């Protein structure tokens, strides 16, 4: 049975029928009661607020720590079918009877937020994919000044989140790797505890981004920190600064957007004290202001991997002030060269998944504190890298902030992954566009980020081309200062030994990137690599964005023997020599820094659900190939 107009009226009628019937029988069969399944609209992102940019510089309250946790594989809590399962409402069984309540938050097990549920202490949850509920009591921020606003900010939760405050639904967010926020100004009780209940559904489905089949572990839950962020009534919601050059003159262009009642025609000041730059501009009717700042000739020290200089940038209005540390550099392509700060650069990279280096094999997981993030990037630096490919989804903001600090160029990607995406589905496109724009908005001030990647290994169909062209157009409009790429892996006009990169998407990319596994997948061995060539029909720089073989750390043998460290090292030697012979290859990001969990990797002897293509093991031990890549990166000032 369904009613024509889902919405408030429908809910009221149903609630009325529901309460009347509930008085009659608590456990009546479901045919008597009408459940309120989430409407299609509710299953999509809604209710979210503009994200306060530069979270770490805001006044905020950390909601990390111990939350209560309920696993709900049959999704009772979402159905609101019986009062005894209204999990989001945080009901309590009355001591003297009343309605039966068949959950009890206070005695529910604890779980740590942030962190995936799969690798926390309960081994029964290792493979769990589905809905689970979290609850935490929160106090309203003490002494809010008049007009101050409060946002509930999630750095990420995988995959679909349903957020309730004091039993009322704030909204839904879809997507596992980008931040989202809800405004809760005026919705927090000033006295006593507020119940924050979050349902996170990690189910993989065709139509999600990524879809149902990816080569990385589907870590579920509130994987990144949650905050209450406090802002003034009218606040600096977003800003972006980028360096460019015109007629030999350096220009920093900045745009600032205010949010709140007095955002139009407001004075905004931007200052970079070390460069003695200061400008005031008034916002337009939309609350936006655009600035141009002209550093004195020779005054600006450009950000680069060798010298990752960051400047304090202060943006202020009458009501708000925010400070960031921002680097300035230019990035462009010229023919088949990548040009950083006017000079050709070779990207000495490595691919990385967002997974911690564990202490033991059963450790790891998707919970990155600052030390974990630093450890991953420090390993990349130790290899001699100046570049990291953060695959295959937006990583924690900690990674890009640290990359800024450590001097690592970054490839940032959204999880439009392989064939498992319905490229004709408008909802999926909308979702991917939203993920990309949230990712760009979050990291637009990170000098380290030079490439937005729209996809990885997608099929050569016209639907996919149209889908990715939309993402490319969006990225260019939102951020014209960076390069666009996508990792390709199709060579229909090539052969086993002659890879021709002629994917029609190439025409729309600034940088071509190709994943190559000759010598691992397929019949050829590393011995064949010297006879392999890579060429493109486009006059553009090419990255080998992936290559690698599985090797279980400590498995030794003949170099011809698969799964050994020797085989992997030999494969690296051969592929690196091949890349050196190919002048249009302008960078490498081999697959991958660390062994990572994957549901696709079944061999109990070597894999045991780990993809073993890491140069270091899941606990950080270096394999032989690590040394091969290290020598290649450090023995040549400018490889190939
Ligand atoms: C690829 C994918 C990556 C996989 C890798 C592999 O081409 O882009 O996600 O993990 O190959 O190990 O097969």
From TrEMBL:
Family matches, as InterPro entries: Beta-gal/glucu_dom_sf (IPR036156), Galactose-bd-like_sf (IPR008979), GH (IPR017853), GH2_Domain-Containing (IPR051913), Glyco_hydro_2 (IPR006101), Glyco_hydro_2_cat (IPR006103), Glyco_hydro_2_N (IPR006104), Ig-like_fold (IPR013783)
Alphabetically ordered keywords of this record: Glycosidase, Hydrolase
Domain Glycoside hydrolase family 2 immunoglobulin-like beta-sandwich: 248-329
Any one GO biological process: carbohydrate metabolic process
Pfam families: Glyco_hydro_2, Glyco_hydro_2_C, Glyco_hydro_2_N
Domain Glycosyl hydrolases family 2 sugar binding, residue spans: 63-232
GO MF, one annotated term: hydrolase activity, hydrolyzing O-glycosyl compounds
Residue ranges constituting the Glycoside hydrolase family 2 catalytic domain according to the UniProt record: 331-575
Family: Belongs to the glycosyl hydrolase 2 family.
Name of the protein: Beta-glucuronidase
Source organism: Termitidicoccus mucosus
């Amino acid at each position: 049975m369904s009613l024509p107009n889902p919405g408030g009226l429908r809910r009221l009628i149903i609630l009325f029928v529901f309460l009347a019937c509930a008085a009659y029988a608590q456990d009546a069969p479901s045919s008597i009661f009408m459940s309120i399944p989430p409407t299609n609209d509710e299953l999509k992102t809604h209710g979210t607020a503009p994200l306060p940019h530069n979270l770490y510089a805001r006044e905020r309250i950390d909601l990390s720590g111990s939350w209560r946790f309920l696993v709900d594989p049959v999704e009772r809590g979402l159905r609101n079918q019986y009062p005894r399962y209204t999990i989001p409402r945080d009901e309590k069984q009355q001591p003297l009877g009343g309605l039966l309540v068949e959950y009890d938050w206070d005695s529910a097990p604890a779980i740590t937020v942030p962190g995936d549920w799969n690798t926390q202490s309960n081994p029964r949850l290792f493979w769990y994919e589905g809905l689970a509920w979290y609850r935490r009591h929160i106090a309203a921020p003490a002494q809010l000044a008049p007009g101050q606003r409060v946002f509930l900010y999630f750095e990420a939760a995988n995959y679909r989140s349903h957020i309730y405050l004091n039993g009322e639904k704030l909204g839904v967010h879809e997507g596992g790797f980008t931040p989202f926020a809800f405004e809760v100004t005026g919705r927090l009780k000033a006295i006593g505890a507020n119940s924050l209940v979050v349902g996170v559904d990690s189910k993989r489905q065709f139509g999600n981004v990524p879809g149902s089949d990816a080569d990385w572990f589907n870590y579920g839950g509130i994987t990144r920190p949650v905050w209450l962020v406090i802002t003034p009534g009218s606040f600096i919601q977003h800003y972006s600064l980028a360096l460019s050059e015109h007629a030999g003159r350096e220009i920093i262009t900045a745009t600032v957007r205010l949010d709140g009642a007095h955002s139009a025609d407001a004075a905004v000041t931007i200052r970079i004290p070390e460069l003695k730059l200061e400008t005031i501009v008034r916002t337009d009717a939309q609350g936006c202001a655009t600035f141009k700042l002209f550093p004195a000739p020779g005054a600006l020290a450009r950000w680069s991997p060798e010298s990752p200089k960051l400047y304090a940038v202060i943006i202020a209005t009458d009501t708000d002030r925010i400070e960031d540390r921002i680097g300035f550099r230019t990035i462009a392509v010229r023919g088949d060269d990548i040009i950083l700060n006017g000079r050709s650069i070779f990207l000495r990279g490595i691919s990385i998944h967002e997974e911690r280096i564990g202490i033991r094999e059963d450790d790891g997981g998707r919970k990155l504190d600052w030390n974990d993030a630093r450890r991953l990037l420090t390993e990349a630096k130790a290899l001699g890298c100046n570049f990291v490919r953060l695959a295959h989804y937006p990583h924690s903001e900690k990674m890009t902030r640290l990359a800024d600090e450590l001097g690592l160029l970054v490839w940032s990607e959204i999880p439009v992954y392989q064939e498992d995406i319905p490229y004709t589905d408008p909802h999926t496109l909308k979702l991917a566009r939203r993920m990309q724009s949230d990712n760009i908005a979050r990291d637009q001030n990170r000098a380290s980020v030079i490439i937005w990647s729209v996809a990885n290994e997608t099929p050569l169909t016209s639907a996919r081309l149209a889908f990715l062209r939309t993402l490319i157009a969006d990225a260019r409009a939102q951020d014209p200062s960076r390069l666009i790429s996508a990792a390709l892996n199709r060579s229909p006009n090539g052969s086993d030994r002659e890879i021709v990169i002629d994917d029609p998407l190439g025409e729309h990319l600034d940088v071509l990137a190709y994943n190559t596994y000759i010598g691992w997948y397929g019949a050829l061995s590393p011995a064949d690599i010297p006879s392999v060539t890579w060429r493109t029909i486009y006059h553009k720089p090419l990255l080998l964005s992936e290559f690698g073989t599985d090797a279980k750390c400590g498995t030794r043998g003949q170099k011809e023997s698969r799964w050994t460290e020797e085989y992997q090292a030999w494969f690296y030697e051969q592929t690196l020599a091949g890349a050196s012979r190919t002048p249009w290859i302008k960078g490498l990001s081999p697959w991958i820094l660390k062994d990572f969990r994957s549901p696709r990797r079944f061999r109990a002897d070597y894999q045991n659900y780990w993809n073993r293509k890491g140069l270091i093991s899941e606990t950080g031990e270096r394999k032989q190939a690590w040394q091969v890549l290290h020598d290649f990166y450090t023995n040549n000032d400018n490889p190939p």
